[in-house]
Amino acid sequence: MTDSNSPLPAVDPAEAATILPWFDDLLAYMNRDEKRFERWANILPEQLQHVLVSREHGDQERWLQALTSLPIPAGVECDLRADDLAIHAPISDATAVEVEQALRGLMPWRKGPFRICGTHIDTEWRSDWKWHRVLPHLSPLKNRLVLDVGCGSGYHMWRMLGEGARRVIGVDPSRLFLMQFEAVKLMVAKAQGKRPDAHLLPLKMEDIPADLRVFDTVFSMGVLYHRRSPIEHLEELRAALRPGGELVLETLVADGPLGYSLMPEDRYAMMRNVWFIPSPETLLLWCRRAGLRNARLVDLNQTSLEEQRSTDWMRYKSLPDFLDPDNRNLTAEGYPAPLRAIVIAEA
């Protein structure tokens, strides 16, 4: 495990009894498919116990209270191909207020949008815009086993299911993202009459056993520039794919020749944990050096102030605050403003 093994205060047993069963259906699936997932299935319960039970988080109890207060009404419907998932049900005004109050207890909401029983969650990011840029370039997701690395609150996981993915596993270490995902999952489960085949694990890519080689499609969107060793991350992604499987990589790039990579002196757009921002040609070279085949750039887009901004559901600073107020093509530190590339490649 990446996290420290030093002793920490234990979470209330009631919290553990609430959280750990969320993963029972995934563990059952992994144990049915012993050959492919045996190594991960053997360690996953311990990983979850360590992250969610042995490591106390000051806000976890409050988030759980918000989640358990969320009404799940009868007659819920949803559309996973809609930009906001279109989750709705015939409910009273009083129940609508309870829904909104519960969802506000899980703020800030960064990835979305969602519409849940009359409540429009206007998230910091218009993640649907990214999805529309990615979708035309994907191999059809129907019946594919998908891994989403750095999945956030799982918005894109729902869109993957909407495109017919057989099962989607997401990894992201944020516990708030997990709570937000489970709130949506409760509604989708009610609409579909069963627990959907989407699972968010509060883990990092490094926690996945090496060389699984089982996933048909692996997504890594908004992760690479946070890694101290981007080549190692690309190798991890390739090793998670079956032979011939598809990698969908979305990351920051900077204008420059082959071999160029920007390394910020300290912060980039107010983020401390940004390490390498390659030119598009350098990014493709990294993919080739990591053993990926047929890497090609399919989209290039400068993030707009409409795509990432503060909202009533995410009241902290956002992209407008991270750019030079006199030149929106520069960050506050004087670097080129965020330019995002999408690369498709095969294992």
Describe this structure in words.
By secondary structure, the chain is of the alpha/beta class. It folds into 2 domains: 13-67, no CATH class; 125-346, Vaccinia Virus protein VP39 (Rossmann fold), CATH 3.40.50.150. 34% of the residues lie in helices and 21% in strands. It has 11 helices and 15 strands. The protein has helices spanning 13-19, 24-32, 34-54, 60-68, 93-104, 127-134, 155-162, 175-192, 230-240, 280-289, 319-322, and strands spanning 111-112, 114-116, 119-121, 125-126, 145-149, 167-171, 198-201, 215-221, 241-253, 261-262, 277-278, 293-302, 323-324, 327-331, 339-346. The strands form 5 sheets. A 7-stranded mixed β-sheet has the order 7-6-5-8-9-15-12, with helices on both faces. Strand 6, helix 8 (175-192) and strand 7 (198-201) form a beta-alpha-beta unit. Helix 4 packs parallel to helix 8. The longest helix is centred in the first third of the chain and has 21 residues, at 34-54. It starts with 12 loop residues before the first helix and ends with a strand. 37% of the residues are buried. This is tRNA U34 carboxymethyltransferase. It comes from Parathalassolituus penaei. Catalyzes carboxymethyl transfer from carboxy-S-adenosyl-L-methionine (Cx-SAM) to 5-hydroxyuridine (ho5U) to form 5-carboxymethoxyuridine (cmo5U) at position 34 in tRNAs. Its EC number is 2.5.1.-.
